[in-house]
Amino acid sequence: MTQVKARVLSGVQPTGNLHLGNYLGAIRNFVGLQQTHDCLYCVVDMHAITVFQDPVELASNTREVAAAFIAAGVDPKNHIVFNQAQVSQHAELAWVLNCVARMGWLNRMTQFKEKAGKDREKASVGLYVYPNLMAADILLYKATHVPVGEDQKQHLELARDIAQKFNNDFNAPAFFPLPEPIIQGPATRVMSLRDGSKKMSKSDPSDLSRITMTDQADDIARKIRKAKTDPEALPETADDLSGRPEAANLLGLFAALTDQPLSTVIGQFAGAPFSSLKEQLAEVAIEKIAPIGAEMKRLTDDPATIDAILADGADRARAIAEPIMAEVRKRVGFLGN
Ligand code: AQP
């Protein structure tokens, strides 16, 4: 049996408008984990097409997400950066897991309910089985840890259930490790700048709702200036944040961007007007995000180099995935190995 090591896998969809939530909730955490784990960071282009993507934009968004990983500090030489579609074992394992997962489990997934909305009949079948593909992404490498934002917690729990059921069904105790989510930091759920009750999201129609990783300094400052607030001064204690989602979001962003505990930041701004928080938040956001955006631009201006990094990463990912997939085929009873 393939030896199980502490291995990290995570993915980001190339669906455009990569934003501060993706960065603080996921990508930033990818960087630190490189010290302690073997890491695979995947641009999940197959997940992206569960909602129609323009093919030309999909290719350029795939390069952009890879550039964001690298610009943020992921090292594609010592770790692995690749796009999912280049490693066909993802799709192959996803099929097997489609046959392991139960309809009842998928019916509970809140992301499908949110994304499919009222017109569920018109959602793609891919959107429904999205969590099974995500389980395949993780289990294909026997990954043990998965850094994600809070919104992915339910999918991770499902991946554990699927791993457990596969192990039971095929009499293979501990064949797939049960992956642990890593949901850490003060910004695991960054909210929209226009509505503190909604997650900051790539698909929000309002550009003012999010800071994207490629926003210029002026845009970052403008969006923070226009961010929704409430009429009160900033709170004195964490308890006073309840019912004040916009204050909680902006203070949480400041804490995340300055690497301070939320309690320290609450103390720093206690009783101050929103305007003073906004002014300082804009400064730190520009300081942290603008250089990453500039480096992303430099990298995406040279698509051939990014494509070579992704191809090399895919080769190395395949080398890990194929022996695990071969064991899966054997255990399931497929001839031909
Ligand atoms: N608002 C957020 N706060 C913290 N983390 C977030 N993530 C996404 N939004 C936030 C985390 O970013 C990683 C990559 O997400 P994804 O691109 O795979 O999928 P998503 O969750 O569908 O991204 P969006 O931006 O929310 O897109 P739409 O608009 O399509 O819904 C994941 O680890 C995720 O948790």
Account of the 3D structure:
By secondary structure, the chain is mainly α. It is built from 13 helices and five strands. The chain has helices at 20-33, 45-48, 55-72, 89-98, 103-107, 110-116, 125-139, 153-169, 217-225, 245-258, 262-269, 274-300, 303-332, and strands at 7-12, 38-43, 80-83, 145-147, 180-182. The site of adenosine-5'-tetraphosphate has 19 residues, from helix 1. Adenosine-5'-tetraphosphate (AQP) is lined by residues 12-13, 15, 21-22, 25-26, 148-149, 151-152, 188-190, 199-203.
Describe the secondary-structure layout.
Elements: E1 7-12, H1 20-33, E2 38-43, H2 45-48, H3 55-72, E3 80-83, H4 89-98, H5 103-107, H6 110-116, H7 125-139, E4 145-147, H8 153-169, E5 180-182, H9 217-225, H10 245-258, H11 262-269, H12 274-300, H13 303-332
Parallel strand pairs: 1-2, 2-3, 4-5
This protein binds adenosine-5'-tetraphosphate.
Residues 12-13, 15, 21-22, 25-26, 148-149, 151-152, 188-190, 199-203 line the site of adenosine-5'-tetraphosphate.
